[in-house]
Specification:
The protein is an alpha/beta fold and 503 residues long. The strands form 3 sheets. It has an 11-stranded mixed sheet, with helices on both faces. A 4-stranded mixed sheet has the order 2-1-5-4. A 3-stranded mixed sheet has the order 16-17-18, sandwiched between helices. The N and C termini lie far apart (56 Å). 45% of the residues are buried.
């Protein structure tokens, strides 16, 4: 059949990339070194290149001494120059696309530059590599006999000073090659719709009769879409809607708290889940093994990596190290230099290495989204895992959650205060709360030490959120749909207090 021929040809083309990947797997440090100096050479004549005299930079030490670690706020003036049409500021080729960051929950948006090089050699290259790795691991896949259901951002592109900004997903869809458009659903017109509550039924109406073989999107929002699809069709699971579905490609938030719900939606042992790690700033890592939660760090996407050990982060003794210095199972803040002109940019994510040959990682959280008010160093990875385990113990399902500290006042000890919305709540909230606290202690020795005999921290406090609380909060913040995320952990109480006011 024609579709099978297309499937075979597409599989053959994509799998040729495996041999190119072997180069950075075998020579990771050399590939990264060569990439860094290629980036420096490309930007010699830019404003940044002249400021730091890139033409005389001959080694990494000189580069790291001249170019400071930078936050978005420090780069923003240069980004604004380019948004207004000035070019050759931090990158040599013209930049006309800016990804409006939807990962931040701050009121002020970030506009991340996206060069033509990044589109082609990072984002699109990664999308093909994702398919390549999946097909290489699953020889009998019929992925290209059907379509991929994509769930992108909920903002349209806007024009301003001959530059454009929107969600990264909107930029990718707007520049997508024709072959990718034919293999995707819904159409670009629906994918780029701005209003989530209008977009949701439109996606369902267009996709329920398609032969969907794969799905891609953020787990929390994809779950909303899939449950609505079941409600619309009256089916008991998604395999009755899309019987040929093989894999769900996910990223953006941890999959751990949602895993059991997806298994019920796709009740087939052979159905696969593949995780990706990407952001507006670039595409960083891809799951390269079936049934794994480790991600292969991709070293040839035009991104040079550096790492800050979290035990030194933000201190006078902050260290910045290269790939050849990282250690297993330590938390690092990620620093990137990219082919969009982000130089030693602190992206705000934290990772840890699970393997050094090849380099595989897990995303553990955000530099700003952790709780360390009492020295407990609680990471999102800890709370995601503990909550998933506790939900499984009590046969219940979670929709969303956030955690904030209860500060020590009037000689009272501190604690952690949780807001959790359940799809179906546990029968005994008190026992659930106790088990959750114990599961966190088992995962985090610092938290366990602070909880010992209630020495520093009292038992956690848990509120059961009303139905749609987090949805209503996101709507109030104008952050419905696509890639927007609920902040899991915070050292402050801002998010929790806003949610409490809506209860």
């Amino acid at each position: 059949m024609p579709l099978q021929i297309i499937n075979s040809f597409a599989t053959w083309i994509l799998k040729k990339r495996i041999h190119q990947m072997e180069l950075f797997l075998k020579y990771p440090h050399e590939v990264q070194e060569e990439l860094l100096f290629s980036l420096i050479k490309s930007a010699e004549a830019t404003q940044i290149g002249k400021k730091y005299d890139f033409s005389s930079v001959k080694n990494y030490t000189t580069f790291s001494e001249r170019v400071p670690i930078a936050s978005y706020e420090e780069l923003e003036p240069l980004i604004e120059l380019t948004r207004k049409g000035e070019q050759n500021v931090f990158w040599h080729s013209n930049i006309k696309w800016f990804a409006k960051s939807s990962g931040t929950t701050n009121a002020k948006s970030k506009f991340i530059p996206v060069s033509a090089e990044a589109l082609e050699n990072c984002h699109y290259k990664a999308s093909k590599d994702l398919l390549c790795l999946f097909l290489n691991n699953n020889e009998d896949s019929q992925l290209f006999t059907g379509k991929s259901l994509r769930l992108g951002g909920s903002k349209q592109l806007y024009e301003d000073n001959n530059t454009f900004f929107g969600d990264l997903s909107a930029i990718l869809i707007d520049n997508m090659p024709i072959w990718a458009e034919f293999s995707s659903t819904p159409s670009s017109k629906i994918s780029l719709m701005g209003d989530w509550e209008t977009k949701l039924p439109a996606i369902i109406n267009e996709t329920v009769n398609e032969n969907v073989t794969s799905l891609a999107g953020v787990p929390s929002w994809m779950l909303v879409l899939l449950q609505k699809a079941l409600e619309t069709t009256g089916k008991s699971n998604l395999l009755e809607v899309w019987p040929n579905a093989e894999v769900y490609f996910h990223g953006g938030v941890s999959f751990e708290p949602y895993k059991e719900q997806y298994k019920k939606l796709f009740p087939k042992d052979s159905f696969k889940y593949y995780e990706i790690y990407n952001a507006s700033e670039g595409f960083f890592a891809i799951q390269d093994q079936n049934g794994s939660d480790e991600l292969l760090l991709m070293l040839d996407y035009g991104i040079f990596y550096e790492f800050i050990p979290m035990d030194t982060f933000g201190t006078l003794n902050q260290r910045v190290i290269r790939l050849n210095q990282v250690e297993l199972h330590k938390n690092y803040a990620l620093v990137i230099t990219t082919n969009s002109g982000l130089w030693r940019y602190l992206i705000g994510d934290t990772i840890r290495f699970t393997s050094l040959n090849p380099y595989r990682i897990k995303v553990t959280g955000r530099t700003k989204h952790h709780i360390n008010v009492f020295g407990e160093e609680l990471m999102v990875e800890n709370t995601d895992t503990a909550l998933a385990k506790t939900c499984k113990m009590f046969n219940c399902e979670m929709v969303d959650y956030t955690v904030a500290p209860i500060f020590m006042t009037n000689n009272q000890k501190g604690a952690h205060e949780w807001m959790v919305e359940f799809k179906n709540p546990p029968e005994d909230i008190a026992k659930f709360t106790q088990a959750l606290d114990e599961n966190i202690q088992a995962l985090n020795s610092d938290y366990e030490a602070k909880r010992y005999n209630n020495m520093t921290l009292n038992p956690l406090v848990l509120h059961v959120a009303r139905t749609n609380l987090f949805y209503d909060w996101l709507k109030q913040q104008d952050k419905l749909g696509g890639q927007h995320k609920v902040p899991r952990l915070s050292n402050e109480r801002t998010y929790l207090e806003q949610l409490l006011q809506l209860t």
